[in-house]
Specification:
The protein is of the alpha+beta class. About 40% of the residues lie in helices and about 15% in strands. The strands form six sheets. The protein has a six-stranded mixed beta sheet, with helices on both faces. The chain has a five-stranded antiparallel beta sheet with strand order 11-12-10-14-13. A three-stranded antiparallel beta sheet has the order 9-15-18. Helix 2 links the parallel strand 1 and strand 2. Helix 18 runs antiparallel to helix 19.
C-alpha cells in the first residue's frame, strides 16, 4: 500500500492527537505542500476523538457542552521567540497565536481559543484539500492496548510517517515503549529528586469586570511557590495551588477516585456538581485547611468563589522518552513523538506548550523534503531540547529540598483547630507581611528593570502594600507564612544571593535556549538556537545540593511510575458500585471489539 502511495507522488502523514501541537504539525506540512519549492504533495490526516463533524456540514468542531464534554480551561504563556517560528508561514497561521501581554517577551492565551483558531485554520480554503480529520478508535479500543496496536499497524501500512501528539498517556508511545522507554525524571536521580508533585487546579470563568492588575498578579506569583496564577485579563484561566503529599492524599481519599496528570480527579464542577452516583463530589467542610487555602488564593489574586468553574486534583510526574524517532523499516511507517507524548513537563515553569511547538516546527521541517536524513537531525534536536527542558526547568521544581512538604512541614497539622490557633499565635504577623512585601517589591524591580520588555505600567509600592494590609484584601497570617516558607532563595549566575525568593529561576535559566533554527538554519524566527550540534549546556556556579545534571538514560525496566499517597478514606458503597459497573461496561466493550 505504501509503495502505491509513493508511486502516486503523495507523502502521507498521520497525526495522532489534534491538540495545539498536532494541529500545528498538520498546518505547517500543508503550507509546505503549497509552496512552489515543494516537489511533492503532502497530505495529512489528523485523528482526534474530541473533534466531530457538524451535522449537515463538512465542518469539524470541538466537542463541547452540547455533546456532554468539557473544553479545556487553562491559559498558557507562549514565548515570543517560539511564536516567531511561525512568522515564515501564512499570516492566517501566525494570527492564531495572538494573546494578551502579561509576562515579559510572551503572551497569554486561553488554550481553548488556540485550539479553536488552529482548527479553523486547518479547514481554511487553501488547506482543506491537504488536511483531513478522522475520529480515533472508539473508547473501548483505547482501553485495550493490544487492539490499539492492531490499529497502529494498519496506520503504519497506510501512511509514510505517524506523528504521535496524543498526550502524556500516549498509547502510540506505550505501544512501542521498549523502543521509546518512558522515563520518570525522578527515577534518574533518586537521591536528589522526588518523583511526584501535587497541585489543586481551579478553573476560572471570565466576568464582565476585569480582575486586579496583571502586573501585581505576576510579582505575587513569582514571590512564592504555593500559588500559580495564569490568566487573561486577571480572571479567565487557572489558579494552581501546590499541595503537600499529605494534602493530596487527604483530598484523593475524600474523592475516592484515581488521579493522573492526563485525567485529573474532579472535586468540583460548576456545570455538573454531582458525581456519577448523584452525590456532591466533595464536602469542603471535611477539609477545612485546604478550603481555607483555596479562599486565600482566590483573595490574593482579587477573585471570589463566583469565578470558580471547576476544581481538579493533579499529580505531576515529569517524564520523557529516551528516544523520539522510530524507523521500523521500509515497509512500515516511521513513528515520531512530539508534545507531551515526547516529554511531560512540570507546568510551574510554564514551558510545556512552548516545548511542544518547538518540536512541531522541527518535525514538520524534517518531514518537508528528506525524512530519512532529516530524522537524524530531528532526534538530535529533541535530545538537546529534552536536556534543556527536563533536566533544566522541570528538574528545578523536583529537587527534594524544593518539595512543599519539606519547605512547609507544618501544613499537615492545619486541619487540627488547636494547631491552627497555636501557629497563628506564634507568628509575628507584621514581620511576615513585611518580609513578603519586601520580596514582592524586589521581584517588581527585577521584572520592570527591562522597560522595553515589561508590558505594564510601573507597579507602585502603595499598590503592593495595600494588597497585604487593607482589611478587605489582607491575607491571613498563616497564608503569608506559608508563602514565605514556600519561597526559595534565588541566586545569580555566580551562585550569589539576589535577595529575591520564590521560583528557582536560577536553575530554570541554565544554559542557552534550544531552538530548531540551530539544526535547520533555513527556518526563520526563534533566537538562533544552540548553534552547532556539539553544543552542551553550561554549568552555573551553584552549591552542590543544586548542581545541574544531564540526566543519564536509565534502564526501561527501572522506569518509575506515579505512586500517589495511599487513600486514607475508603470510598463508600456508591463509589464502589460505580467503579464496578464501569469495569463491567469496559470489559463488555473490549470483548465486543475483539470478538470475531
Amino acid at each position: 500500500a505504501r509503495e502505491q502511495l509513493q508511486d502516486m507522488g503523495d507523502f502521507r502523514v498521520c497525526v495522532v492527537g489534534g491538540g495545539p501541537v498536532g494541529l500545528a504539525v498538520a498546518i505547517q506540512l500543508a503550507e509546505y505542500s503549497l509552496s512552489d519549492e515543494q516537489k511533492r504533495a503532502i497530505k495529512v490526516t489528523v485523528f482526534e476523538k474530541r473533534i466531530h463533524r457538524e451535522k449537515g456540514s463538512k465542518k469539524h468542531l470541538w466537542r463541547g457542552s452540547a455533546e456532554g464534554k468539557r473544553r479545556r480551561e487553562q491559559v498558557v504563556t507562549l514565548q515570543d521567540d517560539v511564536v516567531s517560528l511561525f512568522d515564515s508561514f501564512s499570516n492566517a497561521t501566525a494570527e492564531c497565536f495572538k494573546g494578551e501581554r502579561v509576562w515579559s517577551a510572551s503572551r497569554n492565551l486561553a488554550i481553548r481559543d488556540l485550539e479553536d483558531r488552529l482548527l479553523e485554520r486547518a479547514q481554511a480554503d487553501d488547506l482543506r484539500e491537504k488536511i483531513s480529520f478522522e475520529p480515533c478508535p472508539r473508547p473501548g479500543w483505547r482501553k485495550e492496548l493490544r487492539v490499539y496496536k492492531d490499529w497502529l499497524l494498519y496506520l503504519q501500512q497506510t501512511y509514510n510517517v505517524i506523528v504521535a501528539a496524543d498526550g502524556a498517556q500516549s498509547l502510540t508511545r506505550q505501544a512501542f515503549d521498549d523502543h521509546f522507554c518512558w522515563t520518570t525524571l525522578g527515577a534518574t536521580e533518586p537521591d536528589l529528586l522526588f518523583e511526584t508533585d501535587y497541585t489543586l487546579g481551579i478553573g476560572l470563568q471570565k466576568e464582565v469586570v476585569k480582575g486586579q492588575s496583571q502586573a501585581l498578579n505576576v510579582v505575587l506569583t513569582l514571590a512564592q511557590m504555593r500559588y500559580l496564577f495564569n490568566s487573561e485579563e486577571g480572571v479567565r484561566g487557572y489558579l494552581n495551588i501546590r499541595l503537600t503529599p499529605e494534602e493530596f492524599g487527604e483530598l484523593r481519599g475524600k474523592a475516592g477516585a484515581a488521579c493522573s496528570f492526563s485525567s485529573p480527579c474532579v472535586l468540583f464542577d460548576h456545570f455538573n456538581p454531582l458525581n456519577a452516583c448523584g452525590k456532591t463530589r466533595i464536602s469542603w467542610e471535611d477539609v477545612p485547611a485546604i478550603s481555607h487555602a483555596v479562599e486565600e488564593g482566590l483573595q490574593l489574586f482579587g477573585l471570589t468563589k463566583k469565578h470558580m468553574t471547576s476544581i481538579v486534583l493533579i499529580p505531576i510526574s515529569p517524564a520523557y522518552a529516551q528516544t523520539f524517532w522510530m524507523d521500523p523499516g521500509p515497509d512500515l511507517a516511521s513513528i515520531c513523538l512530539v508534545g507531551d507524548a515526547a516529554m511531560s513537563h512540570h507546568f510551574w515553569p510554564g514551558r510545556g506548550l512552548n516545548t511542544g511547538l518547538k518540536a512541531a516546527v522541527a518535525v514538520a521541517r524534517a518531514l518537508k523534503s528528506d525524512p530519512a536524513a532529516d530524522s537524524v537531525l530531528f532526534e538530535d534536536f529533541m535530545q538537546k531540547l529534552r536536556l534543556r527542558e527536563m533536566q533544566g526547568r522541570s528538574r528545578s521544581m523536583m529537587l527534594q529540598e524544593h518539595s512543599l512538604g519539606v519547605l512547609c512541614p507544618r501544613l499537615g497539622d492545619l486541619n487540627i483547630s488547636e494547631e491552627v490557633e497555636k501557629l497563628t499565635a506564634s507568628l509575628d504577623r507584621e514581620a511576615e507581611e513585611q518580609h513578603f512585601a519586601t520580596n514582592v517589591k524586589r521581584w517588581r524591580d527585577r521584572v520592570q528593570s527591562n522597560s522595553s520588555a515589561w508590558p505594564h505600567a510601573p507597579l507602585l509600592d502603595a499598590v503592593i502594600e495595600a494588597k497585604l494590609t487593607l482589611p478587605v484584601a489582607r491575607p491571613s497570617p498563616i497564608a503569608v507564612n506559608t508563602m514565605n516558607d514556600s519561597a526559595i532563595p534565588v541566586l545569580n549566575r555566580d551562585g550569589l544571593p539576589t535577595g529575591r525568593e520564590g521560583w528557582p529561576t536560577h536553575l530554570q535559566q541554565i544554559g542557552s535556549e534550544v531552538c530548531p533554527t540551530g539544526i535547520f538554519p533555513d527556518l526563520k524566527g526563534g533566537i538562533g538556537g544552540f548553534g552547532s550540534p556539539t553544543h552542551r549546556l553550561s554549568t552555573p556556579k551553584v552549591p552542590p545540593s543544586t548542581s545541574y545534571s544531564r540526566g543519564e538514560p536509565v534502564d526501561c525496566k527501572r522506569t518509575a511510575t506515579v505512586r500517589p499517597p495511599p487513600i486514607d478514606t475508603k470510598p463508600g458503597l456508591c463509589g464502589t458500585l460505580c467503579k464496578g459497573g464501569l469495569m463491567v461496561i469496559v470489559m463488555l466493550m473490549i470483548g465486543r471489539s475483539i470478538s470475531p
